[in-house]
Write a structure and sequence with these properties.
377 residues, Pectate Lyase C-like, 9-stranded parallel sheet, 3 helices
Amino acid sequence: MLSLILMSVLIYVFNVQLVKKSYWTWTETIYIRADGSVDPTDAPIFSADNITYSLTDNIIGDFTQIGSKVIILERDNIVFDGAGYTIQGARGEPRGIFLTGRSNVTIKNTTIKSFYIGIHLYKSPNNNISGNNMINNELSIVVYNSSKNNISCNNVKNNYYGIFIRYSSSNSISGNNITKNHDGIFLWASSNDKFYHNNFIGNTHQVSNYLGDPSGGYYEPPSISTWDDGYPSGGNYWSDYAGLDAKQDGIGDTPYIIDEYNKDNYPLMGAQSPVEPSPLLFWALIGVGIIVSVGTIYFFKKRKATNSAPHTKKLESKKHTRPVTHSHSVSHTHAHAYVRKARIEVNARALVVCCLWLYVGDGCFDSLFSLEGFSLT
């Protein structure tokens, strides 16, 4: 019972989805057509109402034809729910999910990895990209000639370009983890976008502002945007911010300077939610749960066996000593001593195993929680 409770808590906290060990091989483009149909019909996408479309399996492939795309959305006013599954390409030319001229489309809960472009919005306003894992792509999310889109609560990690915005304006980018990319944000002649409550951690260039090639006589206008949500809401967390917080209000006392055109007036002193769960913490909790559960079962079984065993003590009288056998219980003092000893034993075992779990857990994590096994999203 304790194990079931612990696993339920872990699944809720870490959003762990148990995905069956399978995948759908991508050999042709999948369309969600304007009439609501899915083409081809055997694609792993299900919809009961032609509004919400959910993946039912992982999609992987090695199709590198120039300009190819895995999924093209041709219908407005829909929700594409990855349901925790993965769409994986070959990091060649292909694109993961492509929208052109679409509006009011939500793309969520999908891991998209190893593409040239993960999600591509072209001339597509008023869309929502949220809760996705964008990993190991050349360009993770591209917003091109598109305005008034919301990009929020995504994990954008280990891409060359994290979020790439070109000839676009009035987009909202908030609550994203943008980590370990070459360029966290790449701006190209795009202004009046708003960035706030994002975590910029360990990117080679946190933000790049493309101005063309002045030496060759080619110029692009600078991108000028808003980088905070005012005070006291604050701006973004920057891992390379060196300012102080003398007021201790969680906001840096001096602005974070991005370039001569952009600055975060209220840089945050700590990373904001959502944050990516630590694999070590996950494995530690799993280890504690298993050991405590096994130890509890062991404790009660041993106590039961002890209680049912005969216990002999001597009753002394003036004339003789005789053994008296009790088959139902141990003394109160002995029981308490046994409980203390058992608890110490269980806790010691849990501590040892947790230390071992922390030592090996990081290496085991990637192999166990892989595309073909479990999925941690």
